[in-house]
Each structure stands twice: as C-alpha cells, then as structure tokens.
Amino acid sequence: MAHLPVLSSPTGNGFALKNFDTYVTANEAVALGDCVQLSMSSDGIFTSCYLAGQDNAASTGASFANTLKRITKVGAFASVPGNTNTITALSGAQWTESSKTITKSAAFTNYTFTSASNDKVVITGGTNATVGIYTVAGKTSADAITLTASIGALADTQVDIAGNLGNGSASGLARIKVTGGTGATTGFYQVYIKISDDAISLDRTIGAGADGQSNIAFTLLDPKLEHGVFGIALEDASSGGQVKVRLHGVCKAFTRNTADAAIASMNLYAPVADGTLDSDAATYGINAKFVARAVGTALVSTTATRALRLVQFNGISGYGNYAGAN
Amino acid sequence: MSIHAKLAPGGLTYDVQNYDVDLTANAAFQKGEVVMCDIDSNTGRFVSCTAPSSASLGAVSSAICSDGVFGVVLSAVASGATAKVRIRGLVRAVTQSTSNTAWATDSIFIVKTGVTYNATSTTVVELDQGAGTVNQKWVARGMESIVSGMSTPQLRTLHFNGLEGFGRYGGTTS
Questions:
Q1: Nearest-CA distance from B133 to chain A in Å?
Q2: Cα–Cα distances in Å, from B130 out to A23, B10, B60, B108, B134?
Q3: Which of A264, A318, B13, B98 is the most exposed place for a label (fewest CB within 10 A)?
Q4: Which ipTM score applies to this complex?
C-alpha cells in the first residue's frame, strides 16, 4: 500500500505528516475547517467535495407539522435507523396528571430508558391532551412511563392518549439538513423519533412559519461515516466554487466531543454528518473511519461546542476504523 | 513524493520501503523495543520518543479512543540521546506470544507494555489479542514462521507500520 509521506525536520530530528492539499469543486457551501468528503468522477479522479455525510439524495416536497416537529414524505425515511424495541406506537393509553404518568398494559415492555436528554415521547392525540414532544423522566414498569411535564391537566384519567415513543440512542444519530421550503430555517436537525418510513419528528421546529407547508426540502445525512476519502476545507467556498482541501497533514478543523468529555492530545476523531470531527464513540459509532488525532494540551471543558482545534489529519488512509468498546 | 512502497525493478512486485526518523529518547531503550512518538502540542510534529502508555494502545475508554504513533528502536540508546526509530518498514523487533502460540507469515500483531526483556520492563510486539484488546491498533505483520519459544520475547522480523497501522482488532466471531 502506498502512503503519503511523512516529513523529517530540517535539523534531522523529529518528523511530521507532510501537508498534502488539492483543489476541488465545492458541491455546496463549505467553511474553513469543515470536514468534507471527496467525490470521484467516473475516470477515477477526485474532482469535487461536499460536507461530510451529505452524499444522500436530496428530497423535496415534504410537508411539515410544527406542533409535532414532524416532516412527512412517503418513503423518504426508509433508510433512517429505527429500533422497534424502543419505538412504540401508543394508542389507548391513560394519563395521570398527579404523577405525570402514561399507562398502558405491557406497552413499554421493550422500551429501555436511557436518559432524559435522549428519550422523547410525541403525543399525537387524546382528549384534552396537548399534542407535542415531551421528555421522558423514566420508566416505571413495563406498563408505565413518567414525563417531565404535563400533557394537560384536563387530560387527567383520559384513556385515549396516542403517540410515539423514541429513544435517542437508537435513532438519535440520524440527522437531516433542511435546505429550503416556505418558512423553514435551513440547517441541521436531529431525528428524535422515526415514526415510520414516511415520517420523522425532529429535535426542534424548523420554523413556525413552515407549519402546514408541503414544499420542504431536505437531505438525509449519513449517520456514520465508515468509508470515503475526507479532507479539511482550508478556506470558505460557495457552492460551485473551488476550495482548497487538506487531505493529509496538520491543520485546524472543526471538532467536538458530543458528550462534552475532555479532549486530549492523540485522541482519535471520526467525521460525523455535519462536517465535524467528533471524538465521542457513541456519536460516530461502530466502523467509523478515524481520520484525525487531537493535537494540543488537554481541552477539559465545553468540548461539545463545535470549534476550530488543531489536528493531525489523514483523510485517505485514515487511522483504522472504530471496532467498538472492550 | 516518496511513498511507502516502491516498485521492484521488474515492475511486477513491490518492496516495502523503510521510513526511519531521529527522535530524542526520553528514556534508555534497547534495540528492538517499541516506543511511542511524542507529539509537540503546538506544531503537531513528533520530536521525541518515550515508553508507550496503556492508553496509547488503542482500546476505547469512556467512549474515547486514542492511540499512539509507534516505532521500533534500531539500536540501543541512552536517555537524552538521539534514537534512530523505524516508523514503517521491515524491522527486527522484540516480539512474543504470551500464550506461546505459533505464528506464520502475515499474522497480525498489537503492542504490549510491561514485558520483561533482558531483565528490563519494556514494550514489545504481541501476537495475542484477547479480552481487553478490542479496538487496539494492529502495528505489524509477521514475516517469518515461528513454531517454538513464542512466549519468550525475542528479536523477530516484522513488517511494521506504527503510523497508520494495519487496522484495528475487532474481537472474536461467535
């Protein structure tokens, strides 16, 4: 296997990865420090790039329901990971206001509570219930879960509560990028719950003004990046423009640790779907391609914030794929 | 541009190209020991070498994976002196199989710390990849068939790549 060179210092002591840069066409706007994925033309030459993880086909003509933060389009979400053990279609459940409990016999048998930051329930109907997304406080039993907030005091004792239950550890890695639509704020959104192959609920609204619109455009993002040739954009570029990309060497790149754990020198990064290098294994997941190492003194706080940090980057050969925990 | 592999004169095969560097030794090392290259926190350059830490081997801890860039010391060096270190290529390195398992050409190896060699605690190239080693970085391939004395650390010939490695150990199949 051929490798790009490493570079000895002029004094003969020490070495570094030699910088290897190229120019490609940006298929979408990218910013300095973004991790990009390179596209190969039919003659085997890398000619263009896009933000890492965004090679899936774009969709248009989806509808949006603001209250449920739900995007709907027939068949558009078949590839979004969903876990039937943790996503339960609820109907005919009972609401108890005093304990903020949803009860239905055996409805939660296969559900495992992970954390309040991950686990959400979408209330879609029920007498006097306020539809929307609520946070799960915990699982009481196979028959009951508790929420952190009321779905409506007047819904107390009603037995026709309906909704969907989701667990971020199962579907939370999926992201979409909203690219257009009346009243929609473009940007990256996380999928909280896959309702079906036709519908998902997001972590937040794409805009109240988009409610009821049916021209929402979005791109499903690859939640895990296990292959591909990656680079770091060395400059801002608009869609269709030329961008200088570092494939190999030392540079600053957008990094974070989604779990807000400390990042130390030599920690390995893998790209995730918003063009960021992440050091959190729970985020990049099994088989993700390691493409960079952290360089620098320990970063002990606010590492969940996406920021430019020094890395030693190798987007071609990489540093192996993540094989999982011991 | 130099590359790690080069075509043989006939053009039908290729040779592994050695890549050696000079690094300041932060401790005394024996010939064939595995060392970890220390990175300069400001420049990203590797300027010295030290004994590998357990955290550098590649196993994940608290959802964070780290590994080191390794090399093999080509001749004994005193602490503070300049060590000649092979980062990639064919090399004689201290190698063992803790379980005394025979190996053949193309067997794959990880790094193991805390092994006694010549009465000194050192870091070697290790065949065994069992419990606790999932995700560790493969750094070498065997270049010879070894059928006896595997549990005794000795200098043996390997195809080494301590920078990119040869992938990671993914565990056993069930």
A1: 7
A2: 44, 41, 14, 13, 7
A3: B13
A4: 0.86
User: Which residues are registered as beta bridge partners of B73?
Assistant: B85
Which residue in the block uniquely carries the two structure tokens 């907030």?
A149
- Contact flag B5-A325 (C-beta cutoff 8 Å): no
Residue in A4, A13, A267 to test binding to B, most B beta-carbons within 10 Å? A13
Q: Which helix (H) or strand (E) holds A281?
A: helix A281-284
Can you point out the beta strands (E) in A41-174? Answer: 46-51, 58-65, 70-72, 88-96, 101-103, 120-125, 132-141, 144-147, 161-166
Q: What percent of chain B has pLDDT over 90?
A: 67
CB spacing of A323 vs B47 below 8 angstroms: no
Mutate to test the interface with A, among B45, B88, B161 (most CBs of A within 10 A): B45
CA A318 to chain centre: 21
pLDDT for A241-287, tens place per residue? 999 999 999 999 999 998 889 888 899 999 987 789 999 998 888 88
Smallest Cβ–Cβ distance between A261 and the set B21, B22, B62 belongs to B62
